[in-house]
Amino acid sequence: MALQAHSPEDLKRMLERIDGRGYPAYRDLEGEYRFPTFVLTVEHVQSDPFAPPSRFRIDIPLQTTGIPEELYADPVRRTAVEDFILRTAAQNLRGWRQKRGSGKSGLIEILEPTQVVLPRSAVEIGAKALTVRFVVGLPARGRTVLGRQAAEMLLEDIPSWVESSFFWKAMNHQKAREHVALAVDQDALRRWMSAEGLVAFVGDGSILPRESGQSDLPLRQGAIPFQSPPSLRREVRLPSGRMVAGMAVPKGITLICGGGYHGKSTLLRALEQGVYNHIAGDGREWVLTDPTAVKIRAEDGRWVRGVNISPFINNLPYGKSTRRFTTESASGATSQAANIMEAVEMGARVLLIDEDTSATNFMIRDARMQALVAKEHEPITPFIDRARQLLEEWGVSTVLVVGGAGDYLDIADRVIAMESYIPKDVTGEARRIMERMPSNRKAETAGPLPEKPARVIRGLGHRPKPGEKWKVEAKDLHLILYGRERVLLHAVEQLAEMGQTRAIAACLRLLSERADGRKNLAELVRELFREVESRGFSAWSGSRGCPGTYALPRPYEVAAAVNRLEGLQIKEE
Ligand code: ADP
Ligand code: MG
């Protein structure tokens, strides 16, 4: 990389010089170019027109952008305005691609955000500058440099895109301010929830169902807007002055019951995603969940490494230990137990569970089964007998969808019934039924919970030898390649966009170097988040510069990937 900055004229001359030469001649472009209002950095040039496109970066001094300081004065506003700018910039590129030769020639592309508002590496506001990261397909005919087309792209198209996307004078001021005001209100609502001891809030009028299993857009036709039951309805005035009313779910054990197809799972899925802020028009702008909430499900077949699942599973056949439980293929119940213990280890204070995706024997053992199979022969202490302790001893609340297991009424603090997509508070009715029809099951609690888990990590498995080329790479939203190993994240349901998976892959690479048997997993992950907060995404990227394709995951999902590694090594106590 060139140390001294060049001028746009230098760039023009370079492109004239390499015109008609072989593609590798583009390598000469790597370096910095000072345009009148921004600095363009060519960070990495692709090896040929068909390879992943070249990585570019733009830096604009914050004052030069003209963006009012109050729009990025704190992390909440900053993330919102970054998100707004990225959406504008992506919009301005949409449908714009000009084919300028072979392969990816002519491509200019920036990350496409989803419905959630997240910090992303594509647009970052740092202490002094706005940084934009995107990719460019440097044009070629066959494998021959097309210098004139490249000059058009780099000296005309990119500068005009930059002018129309990253300067306040070109932005829609009202929309920008509304985008930030929404995030500020969402943040205020979250703070209010935390002060009031609430774990979830679902605003009246919210549209929870999605267009389809493949689309995160709101269902357009026939969606019944959410309407809170009067007994759980709360109303708040937010900083913008708007009033928001909705269903407030307090800490404790909350059941969502109701007939099949009445919208239970849809409500729970909205709560799962409520750990993120959504953009206006999503329908879930006012569905907010405690940010530490983790979806828990059965995941048979997963790897488990040294997890203490003894609160739920004990006395396995042939004395297999469950205090440091390890397996290459967990059962439904053991996987669900491990998922809970791992979430708690990372600090989860709310568990979100759907009967649809749970192991029945993990959730419940009814009176007849208790009579038939003596406790001595049943390794499982079902969740129903631990949920109250999780709350009282560890401060962990549960929101649980149940359609079938009526015994759960015994342990619920409140019961919400979904009826044709409208929730009713049926807590009183549930109490009367419990009195009339006792479940007759015996609680199977086996002593207090152990200490909260905190496993010290010795290593993540594969350690590259010096000079060895190995990749850690996100393949799709729910799959990471870690060297040759496939890290399956299909059951990690709170990943919202692939940029998060890419960032998790980057975290795995860093953790593979750092895990040395001294720190526990939560500490290691917290350290990573402190770094990204203070230094931005370049803290997580390797020596080849930061790609513009990262989005911030949560610590829970980073840990979930670590926990699914085949070679994860836990220090013996
Ligand atoms: P359950 O878990 O109670 O069986 P689901 O949540 O899976 O039900 O919902 C069943 C169907 O109803 C889904 O296709 C879902 O998209 C749709 N649905 C859910 N909530 C609403 C709503 N508020 N308005 C319209 N359709 C909805
Ligand atoms: Mg369901």
List its traits:
single chain, 573 residues, alpha+beta, 3 domains, 6-stranded antiparallel beta sheet, 6-stranded mixed beta sheet, 14 helices, 29 strands, binds adenosine-5'-diphosphate, binds magnesium ion
What does it look like?
This protein has 573 residues and is α+β, with helices and mostly antiparallel strands. It folds into three domains: 5-171, no CATH class; 294-436, no CATH class; 457-570, no CATH class. It contains 14 helices and 29 strands. The strands form nine sheets. Strands 1, 2, 3, 4, 6 and 7 form a six-stranded antiparallel beta sheet that branches. A six-stranded mixed beta sheet has the order 18-21-22-15-23-24, sandwiched between helices. Strands 13-14-10-17 form a four-stranded antiparallel beta sheet, with helices on both faces. Strand 13 and strand 14 (243-250) form a beta hairpin. The longest helix is centred in the N-terminal third of the chain and has 24 residues, at 173-196. The protein is globular and about 85 Å long. The mean pLDDT is 94. Bound molecules: adenosine-5'-diphosphate and magnesium ion. The site of adenosine-5'-diphosphate has 15 residues, from helix 6.
